Amino acid sequence: MAFVLNRTLGPIVSRRLLQRVITSTANEQQYRFRSRTPFNTVVLFVPQQEAWVVERMGKFYKTLNPGLNFLLPILDNIRYVQSLKEIAIEIPSQAAISKDNVTLNIDGVLYLKVFDPYLASYGVEDAEFAVTQLAQTTMRSEIGKITLDTLFRERELLNAGIVEAINKAAKAWGIICLRYEIRDIRLPAKVQEAMQMQVEAERRKRATILESEGIREAQINKAEGTKQATILSSEGFKLEQINNANGEAEAIRARASARAQALQTISDKLQSEEGRNAASLQIAEQYVHAFANLARTNNTIILPSNAGDMSSMVASALAIYNNLQTKDRQGFLSHSTSTNSSTPVTKLSSTPIDSKLSSIPIDSKSSTDISSVRHIKKSITEKDTH
After folding, report:
1. Which of 116, 196, 254, 263 places its Cα 20 to 30 Å from the Cα of 212?
2. pLDDT tens for each residue of 111-144
3. Those residues with Cβ within 8 angstroms of residue 140's Cβ, 6 or more apart along the chain or in another chain
4. Crossing angle for the helix pair 127-143 and 2-33, nearest 10 degrees?
């Protein structure tokens, strides 16, 4: 039963208490807004930032400005005293519903100023009370147009909307609203819990994002470092290979140049008769010396079928050289024949050894070849004797 009475009578009692609070607040503000009217003493001194509204025989007569003023006794009466200073009016807390159906309690402070003492005195019965009620209704109307999140983000926009709405109506009352400030916003407990959970979730989300971005940046930096290291390593290896190739090329060119110079020197020497005779003798000696070295070892080797025929060995060695120098020798012989056609050819006595050396091509005009053959024939004779 008590619960039913509380649900039934609670809103009515609350509404009446709110009306009493508003009325008492308005009365207090009325006394602050409108001071006690002074008595007509004929000579009056009006304080600064005040305006005295004078009636003569019950009708508006004039407004006394700050300074020295004179009035007629009995006929003139000071009816209203308006303060021209900027005053602040506290707007009581009231319930409002936002666009997203969230119930909240909100209060504020209104700053206003009287710019026309006549309208403030005769345009409305109680200017401050009227402005307070207008501010409350305007605030509820403006809050119903926006969501709760917009209210928190764009509080300045809400204040500007309330000021604009109040000035449209208060202009006829001789009052101008300078600004309005929302002082406190109170939300239901469940809404506060939901908002707190949302804030915590948003913070966790930001922390997770920041952590993932940090990991990503670290991986990117690590990959970039590895990439740069690989690039530098490959460039170093490339330069090393290039330098090695250049060095090897220089070495090959140097060896080729030396070889070419050596061959050129040999070629120059072979153009003469003495050079060719020396080359023939050297080849024959190297050939015989090679077979002599092979005879000193126990290695099993493969020899040609005529290894016992020394003359054929020497002939083979000389044939190798003669085959390589065929063209040069033919040119040289043709030249020698034309110049020395009358020179006799030396002939050796016919012996069995001579038959073995008959196959050796000997230049009849070269004493070196004849000496070489004689030396070889002597060696073969000594071998047959033994």
Report:
1. 196
2. 999 999 999 888 888 888 888 888 888 888 888 8
3. 94, 96
4. 130
